[in-house]
Amino acid sequence: MYQERITLTTKDILEKEFKIDTRGYRPQEVDKFLDIIIRDYEEFSKILNEEEQDKKDLIEENMKLKQEIRSLRTKLEILKDSTGNESSSADVLRRLSNLEKIIYGKD
Question: How does DSSP classify residue 83?
Fold first, then answer.
Protein backbone atom coordinates (compact mmCIF):
# COMPACT_ATOMS: atom_id res chain seq x y z
CA MET A 1 0.00 0.00 0.00
CA TYR A 2 2.67 2.49 0.98
CA GLN A 3 5.22 1.11 -1.45
CA GLU A 4 3.83 3.06 -4.40
CA ARG A 5 4.15 6.32 -2.45
CA ILE A 6 7.80 5.83 -1.46
CA THR A 7 10.35 6.99 -4.02
CA LEU A 8 13.63 5.62 -2.70
CA THR A 9 14.54 2.10 -1.72
CA THR A 10 17.40 1.14 0.56
CA LYS A 11 19.24 -0.06 -2.54
CA ASP A 12 18.80 3.36 -4.20
CA ILE A 13 20.27 5.06 -1.16
CA LEU A 14 23.12 2.58 -0.86
CA GLU A 15 24.13 2.83 -4.52
CA LYS A 16 23.84 6.62 -4.80
CA GLU A 17 27.01 8.15 -6.22
CA PHE A 18 27.84 11.77 -5.49
CA LYS A 19 29.97 13.90 -7.77
CA ILE A 20 33.12 15.06 -6.05
CA ASP A 21 33.92 18.73 -6.39
CA THR A 22 37.03 20.56 -5.27
CA ARG A 23 35.12 21.71 -2.23
CA GLY A 24 33.02 18.56 -1.93
CA TYR A 25 31.95 16.58 1.08
CA ARG A 26 34.06 13.93 2.70
CA PRO A 27 32.97 10.60 1.18
CA GLN A 28 33.34 8.78 4.53
CA GLU A 29 30.94 11.18 6.25
CA VAL A 30 28.42 10.86 3.43
CA ASP A 31 28.68 7.06 3.58
CA LYS A 32 28.17 6.99 7.37
CA PHE A 33 25.16 9.25 7.10
CA LEU A 34 23.67 7.21 4.28
CA ASP A 35 24.17 4.04 6.36
CA ILE A 36 22.10 5.62 9.14
CA ILE A 37 19.41 6.62 6.63
CA ILE A 38 19.34 3.09 5.21
CA ARG A 39 18.89 1.53 8.66
CA ASP A 40 16.10 3.97 9.50
CA TYR A 41 14.47 3.40 6.14
CA GLU A 42 14.54 -0.39 6.59
CA GLU A 43 13.07 -0.05 10.08
CA PHE A 44 10.38 2.26 8.74
CA SER A 45 9.53 -0.32 6.11
CA LYS A 46 9.32 -3.10 8.71
CA ILE A 47 7.05 -0.99 10.92
CA LEU A 48 4.71 -0.25 8.01
CA ASN A 49 4.52 -3.92 7.07
CA GLU A 50 3.81 -4.92 10.67
CA GLU A 51 1.10 -2.26 10.98
CA GLU A 52 -0.47 -3.37 7.70
CA GLN A 53 -0.53 -6.99 8.91
CA ASP A 54 -2.02 -5.93 12.26
CA LYS A 55 -4.71 -4.01 10.40
CA LYS A 56 -5.55 -7.08 8.28
CA ASP A 57 -5.68 -9.27 11.40
CA LEU A 58 -8.00 -6.85 13.17
CA ILE A 59 -10.31 -6.61 10.17
CA GLU A 60 -10.47 -10.41 9.99
CA GLU A 61 -11.15 -10.71 13.73
CA ASN A 62 -13.83 -8.02 13.48
CA MET A 63 -15.54 -9.91 10.66
CA LYS A 64 -15.51 -13.15 12.68
CA LEU A 65 -16.97 -11.41 15.71
CA LYS A 66 -19.72 -9.83 13.62
CA GLN A 67 -20.56 -13.24 12.18
CA GLU A 68 -20.74 -14.67 15.68
CA ILE A 69 -23.06 -11.84 16.73
CA ARG A 70 -25.32 -12.58 13.77
CA SER A 71 -25.33 -16.26 14.69
CA LEU A 72 -26.12 -15.50 18.33
CA ARG A 73 -28.92 -13.14 17.34
CA THR A 74 -30.40 -15.87 15.18
CA LYS A 75 -30.17 -18.34 18.04
CA LEU A 76 -31.70 -15.76 20.37
CA GLU A 77 -34.66 -15.30 18.04
CA ILE A 78 -35.15 -19.07 17.96
CA LEU A 79 -34.99 -19.20 21.75
CA LYS A 80 -37.47 -16.34 22.05
CA ASP A 81 -39.90 -18.30 19.91
CA SER A 82 -39.56 -21.36 22.11
CA THR A 83 -40.84 -21.27 25.67
CA GLY A 84 -39.48 -22.50 28.97
CA ASN A 85 -35.78 -21.70 28.47
CA GLU A 86 -35.49 -18.53 30.54
CA SER A 87 -31.99 -19.26 31.90
CA SER A 88 -30.47 -20.14 28.52
CA SER A 89 -32.01 -17.03 26.93
CA ALA A 90 -30.47 -14.88 29.63
CA ASP A 91 -27.12 -16.55 29.01
CA VAL A 92 -27.34 -15.87 25.28
CA LEU A 93 -28.29 -12.25 25.96
CA ARG A 94 -25.28 -11.82 28.25
CA ARG A 95 -22.95 -13.33 25.64
CA LEU A 96 -24.42 -11.12 22.93
CA SER A 97 -24.04 -8.05 25.12
CA ASN A 98 -20.40 -8.90 25.85
CA LEU A 99 -19.64 -9.39 22.16
CA GLU A 100 -21.24 -6.06 21.29
CA LYS A 101 -19.12 -4.38 23.94
CA ILE A 102 -15.98 -5.92 22.44
CA ILE A 103 -16.84 -4.95 18.87
CA TYR A 104 -18.42 -1.56 19.37
CA GLY A 105 -16.50 -0.51 22.45
CA LYS A 106 -19.63 0.18 24.49
CA ASP A 107 -19.30 0.20 28.26
Answer: S
